[in-house]
Write a structure and sequence with these properties.
single chain; about 170 residues; about 80% helix
Length: about 170
């Protein structure tokens, strides 16, 4: 919730400022500087702290999601002490650190991270549908058939939108 609030506040403030002044942002420094009319001289510090908190919350969420998905592939519950969950979390963090070391431009890294998140989203959606449909994992809370049908339909829409985005239709 905190990560969502921070990300939303950043996007709303930035979009308002950029739109009002007709500014094209192609660098993080430009984004931070254009927030100064709203936030004053502390804009760079506030922007940096907001990015740090957004990054931390995203990292924790991504790690837990990776652990959950990896455990779900083996029809297990997420448990950080379980081997499959731990492998998923570790793979996520090792991949993120490797990406930080390879990408020289932070703004470009941000763009690439969002593009890669878009690519993996359909996989995540369908693995989580499978996990939440498993009686073995979810017990009596497993998805019903009608709910599964709805979820698969939503997953299909997400996948189609992803394909449209990638092909530039």
């Amino acid at each position: 919730g905190v990560g969502w609030a921070i990300n939303s506040a950043m996007v709303i403030l930035a979009a308002t400022t950029f739109f009002a002044h007709g500014i094209v942002v192609d660098d993080l420094a430009v984004a931070a500087a254009t927030l100064s009319p709203i936030l004053g001289p502390a804009s760079s510090t506030i922007f940096a702290v907001a990015l740090l908190f957004a990054g931390l919350s995203s990292s924790v969420t991504a790690g837990m999601a990776a652990g959950t998905i990896t455990a779900g592939m083996f029809d297990e519950e997420y448990d950080i002490h379980d081997r499959h969950s731990s492998i998923g979390v570790a793979a996520c963090f090792v991949g993120a650190v490797a990406a930080c070391l390879v990408v020289p431009n932070p703004f470009e890294g941000l763009i690439w991270s969002q593009a890669l998140l878009s690519l993996q989203l359909p996989i995540t959606v369908f693995v989580l549908i499978r996990l939440t449909s498993s009686r073995r994992v979810m017990g009596r809370y497993a998805n019903s058939r009608p709910l599964n049908t709805l979820l698969v339909g939503i997953g299909a829409i997400v996948t189609i939108l992803d394909i449209v985005l990638l092909t530039g239709m």
